[in-house]
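Entry 14. Structure prediction run on the chain below.
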Amino acid sequence: MGAEYPGHLLAREPAPPYEGEGQFALWHFSEDPSLGRFRPRASAASPEAQPLVWAVDTRHAPMFWFTRDCPRGCVWTVPSTTPEDRERFFGQSAANRVHVMEAGWLGRMRACRLYAYRLPAGAFRPHEVGGYWVADEPVEAIERVVIDDLLGRHASARIELRLTPSIWPFWRRVTNSTVEFSGCRLRNAASHPDRLEALDSERPPSDRRGS
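Output returned:
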């Protein structure tokens, strides 16, 4: 598909590009260094669904620059974002993408080494949620890239990474806003009064995939 991002294939506005993004490719992120062949598997959240191999494209790969089980929320603006919401979530930032994680995961984040497996794009089709791609047949990885220093990777990409005691106050407001968002592993987040309300409004496939 070349270096140009194929946003016309997606059902939602893609995230904006980031510093050092590189060419379009499809990736699977893992803390396991020994993977090579990826077979379709059913979603833990929807075991009755068709087994699939999941991948994320380069543009949205930063959503997986976390240790696997770390709950996180990622947001960016789109043309329909209101000026009020732009100021609300980005008013004190020069970044156009913000990632939020809980401070209790910082130690694991610092210690984490990820392996990004590049998968053959021709085997995949875009999922209804932009940035995710799926295949219904086994695929072989064609490259493995080691990713260390996840905090530094965010900084180099000019993606703002925020630490907070609980992600839930932020997430409840995000899911009732006009910014685009993606969440993952939210059920691992700390208890908070906003937790249940926010989980009810989670947008799929957030918390379905962890890498």
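Helices lie at 83-90, 106-111, 150-157, 168-174, 195-200.
Filed with the rest of this week's runs.
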